[in-house]
Amino acid sequence: MNKRQALSAVLATAMVASLGVTASAATPVAATELAYTGELELMHYSTLEESQGNGGSDGFRTVLAAWQEAHPDITLNENVLANAEYKTQIQTLASANDLPDVFLLQGMNTKAWAEQGLIMDLTDTIAASPYYADYNQAYFTPFKTADGKIYGYPVLTGGTCTVVIYDKAMWKDAGFDAFPATWADVETAAAYFGEQGIDTIAFGNGGQWQANSDFLSTLGNRYTGPEWFQSLIDKAGAKFTDEAFVKALTEMQRLFTQTTIFNEDFNAVTNEDAREYYISGDAAAFIGGNWDWSYIYATLKESDPDKFANMGIAVLPQPADADKAPNSQNIGLGYAVAFNSNLAEDPDKLAAAIDLAQEITGPAFASYVAENYALGGLTKVADVDLSAFDQQTVDFYNWSYVDTETCEIYDSYINSAVWSILNTDMQSMMNGELDPATVAANAQAAYEENY
Prior knowledge:
The structure is a single chain. The protein is α/β, with parallel strands linked by helices. It has helices at 2-7, 9-19, 55-70, 83-95, 110-115, 123-127, 168-173, 183-195, 209-224, 226-234, 243-257, 271-280, 290-303, 305-309, 347-360, 363-373, 391-401, 416-430, 436-450; strands at residues 38-44, 74-80, 102-106, 153-154, 159-160, 163-167, 285-288, 311-314, 328-332, 335-339, 405-407. It starts with a helix and ends with a helix.
């Protein structure tokens, strides 16, 4: 995920520079009177370097500074590490039962750390937040346990891993006024594009994770619905070998082995390579993540104004035998503000931590990132002023946060040992070398062994 987060900075840098947007908090933090005076530990990875052009980190640091200014009697001791180092260090501290007062929790650690009593149950606290009515409830999924308890305030900004970017003019020539809603229509278009010597959709799975993050987690949701994956996270009965998930794998294999939709080298090239096929006009569409949209946006705006003007976005087409969530795209917040369970021993300090968490995930943050970067976070913002941005950016903001149904990004949960097996097998499956049932069985075995 680090690579994706780094690449997503491209758009933020390009937009802020080209539009001359002045970074300023649109909504001040609440001037809450707090009884606590003293030190409060906070560990996070929004370094100064990362915040340069990264909307989420910039917003986090900006609102954090405003909160510190509003509460001068509280000394906020920050431990700020680069993302990779943060992940290692927070695991070390958890193993030693020495977590900081406030820190960023990864969804994949929620279940284990809750069972060990390391993190505080925030279910009632979150429900009592003055901003609760505006929270995007879907973002809490990674930070819930099987009994419905919530252990964190989802933080930073949400970005999709599955967006179809297409050239409107090319698809108009193929007979479609918009990108097709079904794979059957995409196959029809593929016959036309094939005659033109053009790939219909460019895709790159050279890193293996792309098939999971950028394709399967949305396609799978079309068959299983969100409850299945939540059950998988909670170890509440769902299995990779369930019929609905095997159907999703079967359709995925069909699309890549039995149609001419995708570039022949999809398993050899990366998503960075594949998006160049789209940029050059060698493919009529591309499937990737928000970081790819960012790159394509910035590149075409500078190099090809006509193609930039024809840049459209759509959700993944619906399979013929799927009956769920046809307008879904996967998006999420992989981290949440969480508390050391020991904070319960000091009510005043706990109240300060709660106020901090509410503000760095609340309307001050949401307004800042919306108006400066056209991004969204936990708290929804009504009537966002996007007038400083061009229509492409406005459209992508609405597509991401307003007009589509969201689902989870599979590999933001569970653990890497499971996804390593599935991702490797899927690459073979997409080459026609493994059948879907075997892929599902191997994933289930890895799940039972490692999760």
